[in-house]
């Protein structure tokens, strides 16, 4: 039977179940962070192996593959635990669909690895294939951030997603640098790409800094002041100042790879702080929700006791707000308890409203990201541009008008809605 | 085991389950619409009964009470069907908490009705008590609109919520008019209240017009051009042009009550069109999702068949996008099917993203409403104003600066965040 107290408890239980499901998602995100790191290392080494055609890279590459495989199994176990039957609504549908895409990518890795060992594809092709799988994994982290039910956890997931994305761009920068430095020159496309990847990292790490907690921020600032950072900056300048197609010192390939690898490995430590924080937050929130639920049960029991006993307890247990006509008639204590239930319901109501607002705020950077991605998509499909060129158009427009990137993206989308005739659809890569 | 196709189907099933849960909510909303209408009639008659102290109103009042009770039972059955155990997350928690508040209000109706019959309270007190219960029911409809998983259904729920809210303001206008016309004069507070209620109706019906479908809009325009509307407008003018405290013709009470009752009953017909449309939309969406799910299952079976059979089917069943490295190696047909799965996943992905955006758009008016309600709450708690006065301050500021009401509300809230010291909390009424 539907009762006030039944639904009051159901509300708290729903919150609790939401947090428990979120904890599972956060565990999965931790596993994804580790797998992405392993795949990034494997991608980097595969790239070296294919560029240098050096058999001495074969043994460490096999080791990295084996690491990736182990972490892949743990992510797959995380997927298995997700119980697709309990999902409801489009939020879950998006997450499940993302997971299906990830699984599709992971299923294809065996074939990719065989071709790498057969030297049957170019470093660029190999990088692209790994990048697609990593992109799919990052999309799962984005979905997790976008559907988290707790503002603090959302903030932590937003920080983590942006950090992972920044680290992924750092990985692509490493690969582009390896290709250039190893071949002894950069072509125009590679130079533009390096610039794009550098700017992308700045944006991602800026958002990370807005959302991360103190320990992660400190670790990040430490990393930024490390001598490795300065040496990488010097090599970036060597590349940036070279003329397209003009030969460089070919011996810079390995130092670039080693330095950027050290940087990326150091980034992993910041990431680990974030995933630890995520677990702590989940546990803390669940403890809190459990305590609230226990308090509610306690109130329920008191109401029951009062129904049974003839003497009302002497102490006033709850704060009483006298509002006319709320509550059924009865003796004073019953009325007091009844009103304290009403107070509690109003308090819950306000708390849940606040929670929803804080969630919206925590998600704002995700929404801006979605806008920018969609605007890029429109430019790519309608004008046949690639991702970098589309991004540059948005960025130039934003600088010219002193507008935020998200506002320019919104303008592009509004314009596209007005002219829906050019409707070539984008295939996500 | 986590497989591509398993999660692909799970995604579609999640959407399906979300729609089925939404259909249940929409049925409940239909029941709430009927109960609110009955309670509005009962409130109006209770008001008449208490104002006129006329025993001839007793019998029709008892009939209206009996109608309300019947509809209350059906709403309670709707709550019972909701199965609080399946809810997860803060969205459901908000809904359940709202329902707990509604049940608290419904439980108090027996006492209220007894006091009305004992003439033990003023018409204003009775109206306030009924209004609180109706407000709680409207909040459930708001929550339903805010958590609906389909953009078209959200639009319909937004239209319905605003229409119900407008109709509720029309009911309060009726009560305020009855109080004034029956007592033979309006005091300043009543005159200001009539103006507030009139403007509130305009806002609500304007949003309704933005979101409603053709049949409901047509019915609404017909209602607006009905002679009853002109007669009510004339009586509104009589009140508005009277000086505060100056006697009127006392005989206008009953014509006002009858005309406004006819108007509100006519509104109920528009509302019925909206709730019917809601049911149709739910059924249509579920049919569509079912067909999609069947198509997916069909693809799955074909993949299975292909795994068994040695001869690949002769026709090309699916569109093939040749992208390098997607898909495991194998014979051509297997690769084609594999790629068609990838296409399907990317399509789903895009569709779900679009759905999320459309949902955001459909919810925009709800978000504006939340902003305005919160800003009113801040003004009420910090400056000890009542709801009408707070609204008027927002409205005047918006007119002076030629800004939207939501923007002014946002400014008030930002300012309040900067000065959190004056932290008297609002008790929701």
UniProtKB/TrEMBL annotation, chains A, B:
<dbReference type="InterPro" id="IPR011006">
    <property type="entry name" value="CheY-like_superfamily"/>
</dbReference>
<protein>
    <submittedName>
        <fullName>Transcription antitermination regulator</fullName>
    </submittedName>
</protein>
<keyword id="KW-0175">Coiled coil</keyword>
<dbReference type="Pfam" id="PF03861">
    <property type="entry name" value="ANTAR"/>
</dbReference>
<feature type="domain" description="ANTAR">
    <location>
        <begin position="352"/>
        <end position="413"/>
    </location>
</feature>
<dbReference type="InterPro" id="IPR005561">
    <property type="entry name" value="ANTAR"/>
</dbReference>
<dbReference type="GO" id="GO:0003723">
    <property type="term" value="F:RNA binding"/>
</dbReference>
<feature type="coiled-coil region">
    <location>
        <begin position="342"/>
        <end position="369"/>
    </location>
</feature>
<dbReference type="InterPro" id="IPR013587">
    <property type="entry name" value="Nitrate/nitrite_sensing"/>
</dbReference>
<dbReference type="Pfam" id="PF08376">
    <property type="entry name" value="NIT"/>
</dbReference>
<dbReference type="InterPro" id="IPR036388">
    <property type="entry name" value="WH-like_DNA-bd_sf"/>
</dbReference>
């Amino acid at each position: 039977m539907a009762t006030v107290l039944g639904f009051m408890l159901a509300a708290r239980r729903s919150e609790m179940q939401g947090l428990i499901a979120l904890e599972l998602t956060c565990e999965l995100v931790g596993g994804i962070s580790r797998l992405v790191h392993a795949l990034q290392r494997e991608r980097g080494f595969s790239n070296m192996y294919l560029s240098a055609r050096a058999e001495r890279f074969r043994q460490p590459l096999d080791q990295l593959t084996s690491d990736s495989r182990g972490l892949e199994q743990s992510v797959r176990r995380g997927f298995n635990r997700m119980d697709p039957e309990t999902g409801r609504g489009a939020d879950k549908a998006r997450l499940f669909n993302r997971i299906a895409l990830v699984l599709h990518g992971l299923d294809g890795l065996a074939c990719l690895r065989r071709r790498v060992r057969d030297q049957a594809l170019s470093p660029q092709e190999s990088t692209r294939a790994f990048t697609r799988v990593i992109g799919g994994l990052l999309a799962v982290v984005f979905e997790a951030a976008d559907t988290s039910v707790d503002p603090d956890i959302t903030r932590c997931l937003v920080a983590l997603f942006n950090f992972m994305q920044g680290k992924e761009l750092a990985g692509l920068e490493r690969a582009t640098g390896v290709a250039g430095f190893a071949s002894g020159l950069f072509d125009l496309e590679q130079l533009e790409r390096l610039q794009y990847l550098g700017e992308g990292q700045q944006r991602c790490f800026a958002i990370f800094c807005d959302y991360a907690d103190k320990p992660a921020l400190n670790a990040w600032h430490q990393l930024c002041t490390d001598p490795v950072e300065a040496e990488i900056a010097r090599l970036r300048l060597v590349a940036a100042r070279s003329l397209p197609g003009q030969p460089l010192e070919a011996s810079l390939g390995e130092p670039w790879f080693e330095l950027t690898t050290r940087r990326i490995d150091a980034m992993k430590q910041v990431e680990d702080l974030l995933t630890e924080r995520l677990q702590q937050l989940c546990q803390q929130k669940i403890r809190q929700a459990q305590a609230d639920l226990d308090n509610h049960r306690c109130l329920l029991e008191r109401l029951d006791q009062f129904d049974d006993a003839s003497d009302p307890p002497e102490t006033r247990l709850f704060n009483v707000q006298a509002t006319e006509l709320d509550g059924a008639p009865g003796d004073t204590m019953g009325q007091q308890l009844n009103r304290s239930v009403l107070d509690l319901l109003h308090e819950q109501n306000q708390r849940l409203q606040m929670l929803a607002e804080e969630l919206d705020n925590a998600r704002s950077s995700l929404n801006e990201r979605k806008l920018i991605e969609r605007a890029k998509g429109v430019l790519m499909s309608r004008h046949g541009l690639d991702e970098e060129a589309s991004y540059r158009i948005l960025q130039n427009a934003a600088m010219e008008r002193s507008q935020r990137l998200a506002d320019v993206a919104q303008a592009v989308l509004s314009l596209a809605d007005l002219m829906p005739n050019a409707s070539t659809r984008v295939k996500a890569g």
